[in-house]
Amino acid sequence: MHSTIASTPSTTRTGRVLRWRVVDIVVASVIAVASGVIFWAWGQAYSPIAAPIEAVLPGFQGILNGPWLFAGVLGALVIRKPGAAIFTELVAAVVSALIGTQWGFMTLVSGLVQGLGVEIVVAAFLYANWRLYVALLAGAGAGLAESVLDLLYSYPGAKASFAIAYTVSTTISGIVVAGLLSWLLVRALARTGALSRFAAGREVTGRV
Q: Keywords in UniProt for this one (predicted)?
């Protein structure tokens, strides 16, 4: 007779615990609040920058959407638990809305959609792969999800050329800003010891 160890909903077959700890909630909340302030600040600067781009290259203003997409990727890379992307992106959107934003309730919808775009990608890798290409795909997921929402709500009936340009530019922005920069930020934070209680920090520093 041989014994087997059954996996539980909070533990993977490799032994990784997916249940949230108190420190996970606290750090995810800190990430979300800080991100929400950045979201709000970028919202103040967005229109003056986007207007001339849209006038000259309609649709390519999507390249400016990246700063609203990073919270979910950053939260997922640090926490590495189911729901982290949705939690950080949605709470960041709530913080931004509470400070004051011209998009009102749609800010919360965007946060949910962007977080879901990231969550689907990291879930596809079973919350087990956190390499650079996964971060880039997660950023692309956030960008693609937001593109669909914006085209349905903000640009209904847009021409195909506009829709393609907006989707491509937003996705690229998601890959670079939300994906690459978040991945680099996590590694930089890990080297300072700030993430020592997380696998993301121990992975970079070589500690177990």
A: Membrane, Transmembrane, Transmembrane helix
Residue 8 covered by a domain: no
| 17 bridge partner residues | 11
C-beta atoms surrounding 47 within 10 Å: 12
C-alpha distances (whole Å) from 138 to each of 41, 45, 149, 167, 175 are 23, 25, 17, 15, 8
Handedness of CA 26, 28, 31, 33 (dihedral sign): negative
Domain count of the chain? 1
pLDDT-wise least confident of 9-18, 112-121, 157-166, 173-182:
9-18
Mean pLDDT of 184-201: 91
First to last CA, the chain: 33
Q: Which domain holds residue 80?
A: 22-205
Helices (DSSP H) in the chain: which residue ranges?
22-56, 70-79, 84-99, 106-124, 132-153, 160-173, 182-192, 199-205
Q: Looking at the whole model, is its pTM more than 0.85?
A: yes
Nearest Cα residue to 198 out of 70, 73, 28, 32: 28
Asked if 201 and 195 touch (Cβ cutoff 8 Å), the reply is: yes
164 band by pLDDT with thresholds 50, 70 and 90: very high
What does the block give as tokens for 195?
Answer: 């993430």
Residue with tokens 């050329």: 161
